[in-house]
Amino acid sequence: MTLRILLTGATGYVGGTTLTTLLARGGDVKITCLVRGNNRAALLRKQLAVATVVVDLDDTEKVKKAAAEADVVINAANADHPTGAQALVDGLEDRLNATGKKCIIVHLSGTGSLADQSKGEPSSGKIYQDLDCADIRLVPVTKVHRSTDLVITSASERGVVKGYVVMPPLIYGLGTGPFSRTSVQIPALIRGTLKLGKAPYMGKGLGMWNGCYVQDLVDLLVILMDDGLSANPQAATGDEGYYFTATDTFQWKQLAAKIGERLHAKGAIATAEPYSVNEEDEIAAVFGPSQWSAMAYASHSLSKPIKAYKLGWKPKTAGIFDSIDAEYDAVIEEGKENAPKVHVDAIDGLWKAKL
User: Fold this and answer.
1) What is the DSSP string of 34-74?
2) CA–CA separation, 240 vs 163, rounded Å?
3) Sign, Cα dihedral of 169, 10, 86, 90
4) Which tens digits make up the pLDDT trace of 161-194?
5) CA quadruple 199, 212, 74, 41: dihedral positive or negative?
6) Which of 120, 171, 196, 313 is the most exposed place for a label (fewest CB within 10 A)?
């Protein structure tokens, strides 16, 4: 019987990498992508032979209808859109009521919800782990991502879906999707370095974070999907259905120093020495709005994955610092006036594999 997968975020970084990974696996699978733009939807249909629904997550009735036709939803579009997540869950509940089959939703969240407001100062050093999710459940609903996470876990606790919430830290490496191939934080730090002529960090830069290679993250999304579809699933769901993916640990000042070192070696900046940014206007100019930047570039957020390894997850990452050169090249390419909007190599490779 054909497996029906609904994928959100297919034109993005993680979602695009998920799409190419699923297509490369082959099998009796129908993939439908929720896409906001008609042009990108048409390209996906023509070049990759996937179905598309042109819709915004705010159009909850249309999103719900699309989910009601799926066996699996992989939600990689927006970790802070609870109404869209609720529409996906409602659609899967409709499918349960119509068929008696409990379906799967794998939701992409993030460890930003665990971050403190240390702003570059030393912090408590707390490390969350996912074998017992009690500490995760104590994170206030006001924190980033939490309200959307709770839509998934609550529905799973009610028994209407098998719900998994995957919480990656900083994601690095080049994606393999046909559109967006870069993440947020490292490319932003590279752009800030090129703008200032030196690699920036906020305050003392002593906050610690984790990293995860994008393909390793996607591999876990697929593992959870496969486990949920199996006759004897092992992966926890509901209130215990949180999964970390951290493989690297770094301090923000350390990351800035490595970026400075690599860009200086390329002749892109005059000094390898990192630079502390402290003034509010300079922070906003380099990192963006202060509330977001303090969380994304100066906080402390450490997590330890346990359950993923128990499910057979085997990260293949070479390490976060080894990704800097490739991400620098991608940032430069994206900044060119004639930069490609579609990565034809990914499409051609997958298309040939399907023949």
Assistant:
1) EES-HHHHHHHHHHH--EEEE--TT-HHHHHHHHTT-SEEE
2) 10
3) negative
4) 999 999 999 999 999 999 999 999 999 999 999 9
5) positive
6) 196
Please tell me what DSSP assigns to residue 315.
-
Tokens describing residue 243: 């999964």
Residues 6+ apart with CB under 8 A from 38: 54
Residue 156 tokens read as: 């799973």
SS (H, E, C) 204-271: CCCCEEEEEEHHHHHHHHHHHHHHHHCCCCCCCCHHHCEEECCCEEEEHHHHHHHHHHHHHHCCCCCC
This prediction's pTM: 0.95
90 touches 62 (CB < 8 A): no
Contacts of 245 (CB under 8 A, 6+ apart): 166, 167, 168, 169, 212, 216, 217, 220, 305, 308, 315
**Contact yes or no for 170/282 (Cβ under 8 A):** no
Q: Which tokens hold the place of 261?
A: 């070192």
Domains of the chain: 3-354 (3.40.50.720)
191-243 pLDDT, tens digit per residue, is 999 999 999 999 999 999 999 999 999 999 999 999 999 999 999 999 999 99
The one-letter amino acid code at 215 reads Q
Structure-token pair, residue 105: 């939703």
| CA–CA dist 122, 44 (Å, integer) | 46
Residue type, 287: F
161 vs 102: CA distance, rounded Å: 5
Residue 190 CB contacts under 8 Å (≥ 6 apart), including other chains: 259, 263, 324, 327, 328, 331
Instruction: Enumerate residues 6+ apart whose C-beta is below 8 A from 292.
Output: none
The residue count of the chain comes to 355
Judged by DSSP in three states, 94 sits in helix
* Residue whose pair of structure tokens reads 């209130």 in the numeric block: 239
- Spacing of C-alpha 11 from chain mean position: 13
